[in-house]
Amino acid sequence: MHMAARARSRRPGGGIRGREGIAGWVFTAPMIVVLGVFLFIPVLMALYVSLTSWNGNGSPFAGGQNATFVGLDNYSALFTRDGLTRDNFMQSLGNNFWYVVFVVPLQTATSFFLALVVSNRFLKGKSFFRTAFYFPSVTSSIAISVVFLFLFQNSGAVNALLALVGIDGPAWFSDSRGLFHIAFGAFGVDNPAWASADILGRSIWEWISGPSVAMCVVIGLAIWTTTGTFMLLFLAALQDLPVEVDEAAMLDGVGPWQKLRHITLPMIKPTLFLVITLGLIGTWQVFDQIYVMGKGAPAGTTLTPAYLSYQESFRSLKYGTGAAMAFIVFVIIVLLTWFQRWLMSEDRGTTRRTRRAAGVAVGLEQGTHAGGPG
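RESULT FIELD:
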């Protein structure tokens, strides 16, 4: 009875569990402090700067002539006020949109294909191929950008190879034409009347131009340098799949395409979501390749919001406008990630594909328990 009374008198946070909680906070406190000092506090400071007209002189929190509080004026000006700043920002959004549209699907599909190749049990020299495919991801992006500058020069190796097959290569870093403009031009369509309507300071014809020839080089560079990392993520997911499911599929005579579509892809859905999310975040933050490979040239067709934010802040000394651009991109990333999560979420109900995958899995399991075919 004395021990029971002592147990009842103990505080709820006492005992082993209470000490474990305290130990957890002690171990995580340094990282919480680091994140707070070097991440959360600077983000809040940048958010305040986006609400001012700070020109870099003095402290942005001191107010006065150098840092007048303007509220949401920096944000509204980017969408409603005619001028070079809005024109450049809208062009950078259009450029980055096409960059995302091309890079994310291609790098996801390519990395998944490479993961399937290197996970093949009959492939010899797996270590070599995995290292070779991953190597571009660990190389300096600045160094690779410089290499691509030499490769895609007018007299570079790429145009020399194209000349061998009778193709006159373009002036890659000087050609500002969009891919879709080039395609429309092949059919005699050039800035038609229906595409002259103005949207946020740009015509529809400019919005649908597609990535420029110069941006295509950056797209190729991004795909080549990122597929290795995403390949490893897919490879880890493929190696974590239950062996029993693979064996059941083989016993039931499921073809490779059916197995990939109805079994493998649904089972690695979390990894697919992670890869696409990381791809979206990375493509909307592209900066170093743009800085090295032309700084937005030619004619601003390789300009991105990340580089434009840097340019407005550190070159034009409009720190409020630059910070506002950065937070607009942040909101775009959050919205796209939320939309993708909603699109791939299982909470929306069982989709037709999920039902089909479940039916195939049940059929495989029943076939296995029945002793296989025949």
